[in-house]
Amino acid sequence: MSRLDPTRLLPDLQRLAGRLLEGVQPPPIAVLRQRLDPPVLLDVEAATHEEVRRALDGVTPRRLAVGVGSRGIADIGRIVRAVVGTVRDLGFDPFVVPAMGSHGAATAEGQADLLAGYGIDRGLIRATMDTAVIGEVDGIPVHVDREVVEAGAVFVVNRVKPHTSFRGPVESGLAKMAAVGLGKQGGARNMHSRGPAGLRQLIPLAARLLADRGLLVGGLAIIENQRDQTARLRGLRASEVGGDAEAALLDGARALMPRLPFDDLDVLVIDRIG
Fold it and tell me: Is 29 within the bounds of a domain?
């Protein structure tokens, strides 16, 4: 089937604009095509092995929870399997915990089902909605998945990207998973109690608390391109989560987001949007 040449539509579009404007001379109309050539990570498994090893260099092997969220990340099943295999090779004893706040119908079974649907081995998943309070940040109790607290260590895996409700040096990513996702329903409710503006302050503080208590041992950050493909993986040590290193990754993720190729627009007509 041949592709339609959009320039052939210009006369029709001009006539339509003329009718809509009731005889007023319409402005010039042009058809523009945005061509994207984003970076794509070709060997996801190899990059995962390298970055996980770098993030956990010097960390004593032990029982280790791997925190995984509910967002539709492109290669999440492959990445988590590679994370589990790598930490096992390093001498850790891994299992997977849902780190998604109240998602998955706020039930342990619902959260486990979500992860299993991503291709994660159901036998590796330890799901509970029970939490323990490990301290406070700015007067807000910080809840952590009880399986994580009992294991004594967690490695989080999440996509870094801009948040839809607030702007700050650190938005959606590893720190948010540590602060909100691992807190289950109660922890997520506490972190959101001060609204979107409060998240900007509370998320880095709570992530630092987990690291200071020795629970958070590191994380793997995923950056996707404009086509929702994995563009980059970066392992962060516990001391880097929620700090300048994660902030730099957010800047990189923002630069790869799809955008309109205009600085100023008077009217935008959208035919389809994802």
Answer: no
Structural Rg of the chain based on CA atoms: 22
Domain that holds residue 51: 44-255
Contact 183, 174 (CB under 8 A): no
Between CA 108 and CA 138 the distance in angstroms is 29
pLDDT digits (tens, 9 = 90+) for 54-70: 999 999 999 999 999 99
The model's pLDDT over 231-261, given as tens digits with 9 standing for 90+, comes to 999 999 999 999 999 999 999 999 999 888 8
Contact 204, 137 (CB under 8 A): no
Residues 6+ apart with CB under 8 A from 79: 44, 48, 73, 157, 220, 222, 230, 233
Q: Residues 120-138: pLDDT tens digits? A: 999 999 999 999 999 999 9
| CATH code where residue 219 lies | 3.40.50.11440
pLDDT exceeds cutoff 80 at 117: yes
107 part of a folded domain: yes
Note whether 116 and 122 are within 8 A (CB). Answer: yes
Pairing outcome for strands 93-98 and 230-237: unpaired
> What is the number of structural domains in the chain?
1
